[in-house]
Design brief:
about 60 residues; alpha+beta; 2 strands
Length: about 60
């Protein structure tokens, strides 16, 4: 995380030094990062569920043919 603190942060198209952000802004940024991580996890779960659903549908199709 220390190396991330030295990177600029882009907010609404403008770059800011992470350390120059207020504590509230840093907390909001952390919340956005957590939400983004959860979105990725949910997308991965959706891909898994879609694959499983397709496999079940294929098995059903083969069963009734």
């Amino acid at each position: 995380m220390n190396e991330l603190k030295s990177l600029p942060v882009t907010i609404a198209g403008k770059q800011y030094d992470f350390e120059s952000l207020s504590e509230r802004a840093k907390a909001q940024l952390a919340s956005i990062n957590r939400v983004d991580e959860n979105v990725v996890l949910i997308q991965q779960k959706l891909a898994i569920m879609t694959t499983a659903r397709n496999a079940f549908a294929k098995a059903l199709e083969q069963e009734i043919i």
